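Fold these two proteins, one after the other.
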Amino acid sequence: MAAEREARRLLSTSSSRRCYPTPLLLLLLLPRPLLSGAAAVRSGSPPQSAGASVRTFTPFYFLVEPVDTLSVRGSSVILNCSAYSEPAPKIEWKKDGTFLNLVSDDRRQLLPDGSLFISSVVHSKHNKPDEGFYQCVATVDNLGTIVSRTAKLTIAGLPRFTSQPEPSSSVYAGNSAILNCEVNADLISFVKWEQNRQPLLLDDRVVKLPSGSLVISNVTEGDGGLYRCIVESGGPPKYSDEAELKVLQGPEEIPNLVFLMRPSSVIRVTGQSAVLPCVASGLPSPVIRWMKNEEVLDTESSERLVLLAGGSLEITDITEDDAGTYFCIADNGNKTIEAQAELTVQAPPEFLKQPANIYAHESMDIVFECEVTGKPTPTVKWVKNGDVVIPSDYFKIVKEHNLQVLGLVKSDEGFYQCIAENDVGNAQSGAQLIILEHDVAIPTLPPTSLTSATTDHLAPATTGPLPSAPRDVVASLVSTRFIKLTWRTPASDPHGDNLTYSVFYTKEGIARERVENTSQPGEMQVTIQNLMPATVYIFKVMAQNKHGSGESSAPLRVETQPEVQLPGPAPNIRAHATSPTSITVTWETPLSGNGEIQNYKLYYMEKGTDKEQDVDVSSHSYTINGLKKYTEYSFRVVAYNKHGPGVSTQDVAVRTLSDVPSAAPQNLSLEVRNSKSIVIHWQPPSAATQNGQIIGYKIRYRKASRKSDVTETLVTGTQLSQLIEGLDRGTEYNFRVAALTVNGTGPATDWLSAETFESDLDESRVPEVPSSLHVRPLVTSIVVSWTPPENQNIVVRGYAIGYGIGSPHAQTIKVDYKQRYYTIENLDPSSHYVITLKAFNNVGEGIPLYESAVTRPHTVPDPTPMMPPVGVQASILSHDTIRITWADNSLPKHQKITDSRYYTVRWKTNIPANTKYKTANATTLSYLVTGLKPNTLYEFSVMVTKGRRSSTWSMTAHGATFELVPTSPPKDVTVVSKEGKPRTIIVNWQPPSEANGKITGYIIYYSTDVNAEIHDWVIEPVVGNRLTHQIQELTLDTPYYFKIQARNSKGMGPMSEAVQFRTPKALGSAGKGSRLPDLGSDYKPPMSGSNSPHGSPTSPLDSNMLLVIIVSVGVITIVVVVIIAVFCTRRTTSHQKKKRAACKSVNGSHKYKGNCKDVKPPDLWIHHERLELKPIDKSPDPNPVMTDTPIPRNSQDITPVDNSMDSNIHQRRNSYRGHESEDSMSTLAGRRGMRPKMMMPFDSQPPQQSVRNTPSTDTMPASSSQTCCTDHQDPEGATSSSYLASSQEEDSGQSLPTAHVRPSHPLKSFAVPAIPPPGPPIYDPALPSTPLLSQQALNHHIHSVKTASIGTLGRSRPPMPVVVPSAPEVQETTRMLEDSESSYEPDELTKEMAHLEGLMKDLNAITTA
């Protein structure tokens, strides 16, 4: 309200001052309390305070701003300006960007409200001190400065007539007259007219146009006299020459209708008025009407459209929708004439989105948003506290109009204004930036003004321990324009799940610091974007918890990589067609070549295709030949220097020149109309052969008997038929047609003949009945055919076919008279249809002909499946490509495909087990599968499809892609010092993510200079796949940098990022290691002051305690080992005695000297066509025992495992042979020692538990020829069919068995596997490794089964599948070993042997039967 009262006071005081002219100054005095930026700055004030120390936004805005003003020499002018603030602001003025010194100025003074008063405007030809652009500047000490919009003060010059009325002119009564009087544009408003030296009164019949000219419509005798125009601009008036207007009566001859004044194109600003002059003269007097964009304008009912005297159109309160083309149409009944003019509407800048007030902390990034519209499109500049913001590395214009401030400092605080300007005006809008202290939370405001990297969620800090500095801050990835930082949690909080991190960084030597926050708690990496190439940056990382920000890490200095200097785009690329088949392209040397340009590459492509071609060019122009005629092509140029290709130019499009058509028109046909005319029809040549725009066709015809007498007729445009009349009766004519372009005539069609009728046909009656009608029913259609009526002398225009179920009147179709058959579609199967056929002409329809038909029943034979492809082979071509070939037995011997069949190839890898198939279609007997992973085994199968028939999938072919050099460096490189040896360090790492083959070694590079050439670094080779290495004899208290490179059989992979490590100063002190940097979102500012004690070196007391604990643990461990060794020795002696006793009882004497080499266990292997023994689970423990493990009844119940295994895992296999050594299995007691019970299912139970454990063994097929007791360690590691031991990673539980019996008769599929003896693992290298089970989902439920021990098999042996027990879990091994060592006596072994012999007899009997 106070602002409004102040504005009213200004209005009243200003109105009393003399300011010429009065109408313009009224605009100055309008109060504008919310003008431009006021709303934006005030929108956030006062905000909700988050604490007592939060400063509020200060209301500071303009109540009134200066507006554009027109004045005359010697008059006074007021430029209004008033600003609101508490305390009151200081007002100053700028003219043309320079502050005015108003203290000693006699003509210009500052009024109390802030307005500028110029008492007497000075203006001459050579001295124009007052004309220019004025701006009001308001300042509040300790707060800031704002500037108003810019106002233009225009001083009208001396009157100058550019045209004057003609000395003598005449007009017929009733017509219109025009008297010209044009002056300089700034004085048009001061023009007046006099008639006979008396002021002329203007009315609806007499009007003054905006140009100053006078229009008198419907002239009468009283309008005759002397006329002159006068300009009164404050000085003495200036008169034009006098002109006499004579009014004439009836003319001797009627004058033509002409325009006395045509409308001219005008440009206006929204809200203004426009007059489109249009005056016509003629007899009778013309009527004027207006159209806009082919739409008639209603000037009578419209409030904004007014028809002025003479016919001119006035448009008031113009909007952007009024822009367009206007037509003035004059019509006097005898003649119509028209003229047109363009109205262009411009709009001053207007804010769609104004800047908003922002709270922020130092080091933050912020964005002031500003969205403007206007016509022409406004330009935007930003002002901070009255000074223009110059874009730099830290002040950037983003998204065309927004201002981004990076790395805030305290001096950035103040008022920011967005100033938009175009040709017709300017506007400003502002907002305030307040930078809070670090311990003050940011109040809740709309978050749009903070960037995503620095959005804060600060809360009042609570008291408590603060985190120490993050450890091992390294730059893990350094590029030209971004750096990735990683670090470890602070020592004060090793888990760090609830910590957030802020990364502060700045250019070296620059005080302005920026911050990037992690995106979520616990994240320990951040990528810093938008950096400059070859620039040194300093990074610090700080952790925050709920109590506040902790200690900052040590500064890390990182330099971004230099950017390759490539050429810029070639300027002024032009293309022009030189012939129908060639185009010449020219260009200039790039402005930023960044070195010598070696050559250019010209790319071109036909429009509508995606195949781009290129040609190398050494000059600045090139002509491409062999192009298609009249075809549009696009061209672009890329410059090359020694670094490679540069930036491409924009595409330029050009069309080749046209040419004569290269083919004749298509589908030429002749239709004899009567005895004297023939209609000729045709279609244009194909688009590819037209070679230009077809502008017409040339028709040539002749009598067949007189081939030399050719008549030619021309058809223009796109007409595709022509009636040739005036022909002779009963005469044969030949016709041909050729197409035309602007270049000439193309080839003509072949001659086509037709003969005119002997006499004209009769159409005074309807046609007779067609001579025949035939129908052929199908399942859902009926084919109808007929012959025309026998009487050929009656005109037939066409035929009407009626049809329907039981009635022919349901549907009617009409066809041409030349047609003789038609297919009725979409009928119902097994339905009775009645069909009629009638001939018709212009008189009517003739007599119908009837027929009926029953559609066939709908039977769809089941397609028999096709034979699957055979002989599928996989040929490995490279590390990512395999060619699949196959044969198709359903094809002829030459294997040529002549039908529409196609093949579907599918492939997948078994790692991981749930991998989905990928498929592709092929129409040949081979397919190239690309995009595969290196060193990976894939399986392939093929099926064939023909129509609705398809085959099953073929047999599977396997192929493993070749190895490739590693494409990623080793991961997680860490360096630690060795305990007690300060000059020795241990380097640890993980294999590359993309090894692409078996890693055969690593190379460790280390140096004290990270910038040294790589050949100057010290090299430490590591053979094999070891993941740790010691480096000795390093210098104490020296920073070292380490890089690691992996190699396989194909070569070396990329190096890892450099890792820094400083060796300790002396024995006992820890080295400091760091990986060179990453960053992320919740921010807390750095704390100043000394470092906190967190993370300080261990005190001497702690070191002594640690030493005592280590020595004590070592002594206890030695004592326990000695006790266990003594215990095991005694148990072993007892066990050997039992073994000798068992041998004696079985063999009956001691003649074998303590061993049982010749003991031959019963042969339980049954070689049967249905038998399939899957490999047995084995435990990695050297003394595995079997557990009572349920086994699922089918393969679908078995949980799959990962098909990968470390190369160091031992493979073990056992099977019986005729004679075995004692080490293999001497007695059944030895077997019982390994397997307390063999479980066999009797009936299944519902699923009871979910098993997470997976088998920990390789899978090998059983073989009766396998040799026991052979140690072997696989040197190459497990193949893709191996299984990875996972007992150390999963919870305890039952391991899944790996035996699998195919569904068949239970006893026919029975097999007893051999049990591996205690001892080292064995492996038969002669046996291939095969997959066990594949593609089963994890966590299947296992069916529990009832079990019985082996001892019961002699009494009852119902049919049952075999159960093969799996290895126990590691944690169960010790307990089960103890049970197996002491549970069995020789008598029990004898009984078990007897049961097994009985079982053997039964099985042999079954097999024989």
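Now the second one:
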Amino acid sequence: MAAERGARRLLSTSSFWLYCLLLLGRRTPGAAAARSGSAPQSPGASIRTFTPFYFLVEPVDTLSVRGSSVILNCSAYSEPSPKIEWKKDGTFLNLASDDRRQLLPDGSLFISNVVHSKHNKPDEGYYQCVATVESLGTIVSRTAKLTVAGLPRFTSQPEPSSVYAGNSAILNCEVNADLVPFVRWEQNRHPLLLDDRVIKLPSGMLVISNATEGDGGLYRCIVESGGPPKYSDEVELKVLPDTEVTSDLVFLKQPSPLVRVIGQDVVLPCVASGLPTPTIKWMKNEEALDTESSERLVLLAGSSLEISDVTEDDAGTYFCIADNGNETIEAQAELTVQAQPEFLKQPTNIYAHESMDIVFECEVTGKPTPTVKWVKNGDMVIPSDYFKIVKEHNLQVLGLVKSDEGFYQCIAENDVGNAQAGAQLIILEHAPATTGPLPSAPRDVVASLVSTRFIKLTWRTPASDPHGDNLTYSVFYTKEGIARERVENTSRPGEMQVTIQNLMPATVYVFRVMAQNKHGSGESSAPLRVETQPEVQLPGPAPNIRAYATSPTSITVTWETPVSGNGEIQNYKLYYMEKGTDKEQDVDVSSHSFTINGLKKYTEYSFRVVAYNKHGPGVSTQDVAVRTLSDVPSAAPQNLSLEVRNSKSIMIHWQPPAPATQNGQITGYKIRYRKASRKSDVTETLVSGTQLSQLIEGLDRGTEYNFRVAALTINGTGPATDWLSAETFESDLDETRVPEVPSSLHVRPLVTSIVVSWTPPENQNIVVRGYAIGYGIGSPHAQTIKVDYKQRYYTIENLDPSSHYVITLKAFNNVGEGIPLYESAVTRPHTVPDPTPMMPPVGVQASILSHDTIRITWADNSLPKHQKITDSRYYTVRWKTNIPANTKYKNANATTLSYLVTGLKPNTLYEFSVMVTKGRRSSTWSMTAHGTTFELVPTSPPKDVTVVSKEGKPKTIIVNWQPPSEANGKITGYIIYYSTDVNAEIHDWVIEPVVGNRLTHQIQELTLDTPYYFKIQARNSKGMGPMSEAVQFRTPKASGSGGKGSRLPDLGSDYKPPMSGSNSPHGSPTSPLDSNMLLVIIVSVGVITIVVVVIIAVFCTRRTTSHQKKKRAACKSVNGSHKYKGNSKDVKPPDLWIHHERLELKPIDKSPDPNPIMTDTPIPRNSQDITPVDNSMDSNIHQRRNSYRGHESEDSMSTLAGRRGMRPKMMMPFDSQPPQPVISAHPIHSLDHPHHHFHSSSLASPARSHLYHPGSPWPIGTSMSLSDRANSTESVRNTPSTDTMPASSSQTCCTDHQDPEGATSSSYLASSQEEDSGQSLPTAHVRPSHPLKSFAVPAVPPPGPPTYDPALPSTPLLSQQALNHHIHSVKTASIGTLGRSRPPMPVVVPSAPEVQETTRMLEDSESSYEPDELTKEMAHLEGLMKDLNAITTA
């Protein structure tokens, strides 16, 4: 009765509030978003303020050495204090189980004993600090790179050298770039002091200018990087006394192209040597640099240029010019200055309402141009139809929903570094409407103009305000099927049209219009569905495209506006490509001209232009080609060679510079030559650009000359070749005949080479230009090599071992080749075997230990049988996952035959392989082993939870969501929590389960015009994850007013009154008199029918023939094997089943339109899998005996109060079972003791549980068909029914026998006391092959009314604790088969005996029941009739 009173009170209360909400509950759409300042002030609205949340310190790039400690600083400010976590290479670090990494109190990351080796670099990488405040959001810091310097290795070492006093000297010492800061020099084993004269360049090289005697000595460089110091070779530098003899002016060190970041220092090295001592001057872009008066420009050691605090203006080409009075040389290098990303405009905090559009602005600069990405609460924002990147870097969010709230960060990144800036978005609630009349829905909303990209809407004023001069309107629109709704407001009061821009072509949109007056927003118009036109309008080609070169590296392109623009041109895209390549580049242009810089010199390019309008790209122009201007060559001629013709002439040969370095048409070559002894006197001669040789005549006899050649273009002279020397003959030799045979030839064979040596011909009066060496296996004509006439030996390489080669040697001149000299040799055999590779490990196995740990084991066939490692071998384990596909391998070394791989991702497939290394020998990688880590409970809630109303059904809403970011396994289900009170305890929320493969769910029969709050929780096989944030949704208003008061909810056309006196859902009891009268009639008819059936049964048994006995014997043998044949035709129903046609229940048709969304209901497998939501569950278990609504049809009635009444404390585990019929039974109280139950002691139910409904003290047991929850739902009621069900006529013999695999046994014990006293509830056994025939005896309705709606199916719960009643009960059973759903029928079910007992009964009875047995059965039935009489009299 208490439950009945509560239900009535709840119904009346909800009706009152529904009426109030219909009058007062209104929403007003916001007109615009408010940016970082105060929130829009609205009466009665609680103002939320922006929360300061930012980084005080962010990590920076750090260089470390192995074995040292590193601190990556990070500190964030917020109230309350944020939680700090760290990511490495995009993956969160598990600092709790890390011995070397730990989180400091301020949030910084401390790494002790940095590990770094060739195959194991766990600490090197990119680190990012992540700060989180619960219920507020997450921000991420800039990314910092931790570089660990490798082992010291010298790429070049100092070499012994000498220097004249006053001149300059250099000593090389090049190491890894990371180790340059750790390089120092020693002189004579003492630290070398650096000064203005002795400097160390950034590369580690030592420069000594103006050398003195004290500079002589032994030098070596040392690298000290934490470990033992690494020493280079120790070499001697000799300082020679000054001499009057001149020497060549040469560069010891030239500047090279450099790239530096703004704010850094740069050194351009330039060291020259020669006699007289040269002086150094610097120029930039043809302008001399004043290094004496500038504070930022300094000459180090008198020659190298240092620029402090580099700026963008310092970029350019620098020239180092060395001059010693006799000679001038120059070198050049390009300095490129880069800039880290810098914010010109940072995002600002924004207030907004739902359905609005907002833009976060972010403007950055940097060189190279930074790329921009956006992050929301630490997760990357993926551009879509509603999240767009506009104006290069700005983020636009269209159609805001509540879940869009949070912190957004703009992250800019280029090759130099990265930076981040963030802002907060707060979604405000609409202000409640003030007291006063609100406008009705606008009328006649139509699309008066429909285009490809816009739609114009018009409407009439609402009926409540025909003039509508003071009304403003909001148009809400969305793509069909999309939850996000955007809003467009009219520009002035009284305007009744609006144009919606930026739509997609050939797309269906849904529009609705809402009017507002000074009191608030009125009713919304009916949705209007409109489809945009397909796209056809595109711009034509841009006319008059021209291109002209403006410099050797730039070209300007111009064009005009397309004639057939088909709309305003938004921008142009200029495409260009180097001739001869297929890589086309493009650049966006907003004007009609553009200059492209950075092109190759004197290179032809093609250009074309494409115009863009709002519809997209138009028609491309034709290609136009142009070549950049020429410049001086950037490289010297190639392959310079000298040929001495006679005692007074030398022939010079060369090849042009490489085509890419000619930078124009070669117009000529400049040849400079001089005597080697007098380097100051230089003679020049010019030749044409097509000439590639020149004979220099008039030279002195027996004199050495130096030659060099430079190429010329119309722009000037390019760099020259190095000096090349040749000596004229002492006297003119004879070249009218070929040389004689060489005087000797010697060969020395090796394994793969032969060293050939010889002496010139004895007659040296004949000119010898060179020697030709021929060789081959068995024949000397396979290969020929020519060498200079001065050469006396040559090594023939790449020969085969143990092979016989024939070698010839011939001298030649310009007349021809002389007589050959022959020799043969056999190369040596290959005696040194290559080291054989080791055998790879075998039997690699991956044993999964947990969600992040896998143990790898293997065997090594190169070890003894006991697999004991006694040498210094080690194993390298590598692993990776294929998601994403470009994941790199991770490596680890082990000295045992197993390795524990930790830090893996849950539910991820990894592949592993192993390699063994011993000394310098290594094996190949072993065969791979695979292992998938265990699942872990989801560690993040479902994302993007949205709630929308279902069109045409205002009481039904659709909840949509996305899976959790960190599902950690296959999602097997979701639970939706909802309530009208967001602050209610979670156990007071109504829950709806959903299968894991669905991302949408319908909830029906909600209260109209009521705010609901929704949360979603995901589940995998390991348990439940965290809940999402609450999402609010207000159900729509009623379509019409209900007059005074509120009418009862519509129960639908399929609703039938409750059966046999069961109470209605709203607590209206059926008349007790009608129930008793109906019960008396049913019992009377039942008794008469039973007597008739018994008499017929006795008559039939006496006519049993011997033929029938044989059939029973055959049936007995079949049953003895515990197998049934479903296709047996010659069978009978058992004699003890009593058929009462009038008392059998008729099937009630299920709903013709089941909701496919609401059918599958995944539930945890056991109680441990359920996350407790209330610590007082055990103590309140008696107060929370509620039934869980797992399935609801679309037209069924459900209110929030009703649903809360049915909410379970814990959920019944569901699992798929084989298709089988099911009996659902619950006990009903009997008025007598259980003497009429057959085989009451043989209970064979494998699971016993008990369930109570509120308001009723009677125990209720339910069972459910689990084989196909989508199509079959058993509904259990605790009242008898007056309907009948036709019995099945197909039954096999020996029906009482139970197949343990083909049937389902389901029963529930009343209490533990009944079990102790030996009383057991009967168990109904059903074979899958044959429907069960039954008879029913009506029972007295229980006095307590049921508390659930009989029109709704229910789902069984976990067993609840039973009340302590020693009361026996009969059963009500409902029988269902796969694919069908039937209502329950109240019956008295004889318990089927267990298998052993049934077999024994069959063995005892030969073919039929004897008369004595029938007498006993009759006596038993008489007792049953007495019980029935007692029921009727009661």
